[in-house]
Design a protein that fits this description.
single chain; 174 residues; alpha+beta; Arc Repressor Mutant, subunit A; 2 domains; five-stranded mixed sheet; binds FE2/S2 (inorganic) cluster
Length: 174
């Protein structure tokens, strides 16, 4: 069964093609199985997921918008509000908290001059995250949903933030 296309005003043709490619990994009647990939593609394109954007994703997947919204609100990697040029998410769950993440989080807040859920003047959004499956590497953080940084000392955090602000890749936190 082909998708019911609503008026796509926000998703580009390229994004829709990528979502269709993800849908192709599942039986035709289970297009909704691609919802997490579709949300990632939509967020990569728009940086955050507005209600209108999620409705368009639902249209491509031929599923109720509320189901898309339920997925987007359950997982922490989806942003339902605008974020800065970069996003840093630090795990503060107990295993990491016992291994320095609380100190790292405070260092991040001090260096960025903002708290969790806020964006620094330099354009970096700081978020508190759940376990990232790398508890032995604490303090652990993820940059822009795709780059995991382990054993983040104050010095490595400083270098990471400098790299993000300057736009250089650097070797921080790898
Ligand atoms: S508790 Fe932090 S990565 Fe698992």
């Amino acid at each position: 069964m082909s998708a019911v296309r609503t008026n796509q005003r926000l998703l580009s043709a390229d994004a829709v093609a990528k979502i269709e490619r993800e849908c192709g990994k599942y039986p035709p009647e289970q297009r909704q199985s691609a919802v997490m990939s579709a949300l990632r593609i939509a967020q990569d394109e728009h940086r955050w997921l507005s209600n209108e954007l999620m409705e368009e994703v639902a249209g491509v997947l031929n599923m109720p918008p509320v189901w898309v919204y339920e997925v987007a609100t359950f997982y922490g990697m989806y942003d339902l509000k605008p974020v800065g040029k970069h996003k840093v998410v630090i795990c503060t769950n107990l295993p990491c908290a016992l291994s320095g993440s609380e100190h790292a989080a405070e260092h991040l807040k001090a260096k960025l001059g903002c708290g969790f859920g806020e964006t620094s003047a330099s354009g970096i959004t700081l978020k508190e995250g759940e376990c990232m499956g790398a508890c032995g590497d604490a303090p652990v953080l993820i940059v822009d949903n795709k780059r995991m940084c382990s054993f983040m000392s104050d010095e490595k955090i400083d270098q990471l933030l400098a790299d993000l602000v300057s736009g250089t890749k650097g070797k921080s936190g790898t």
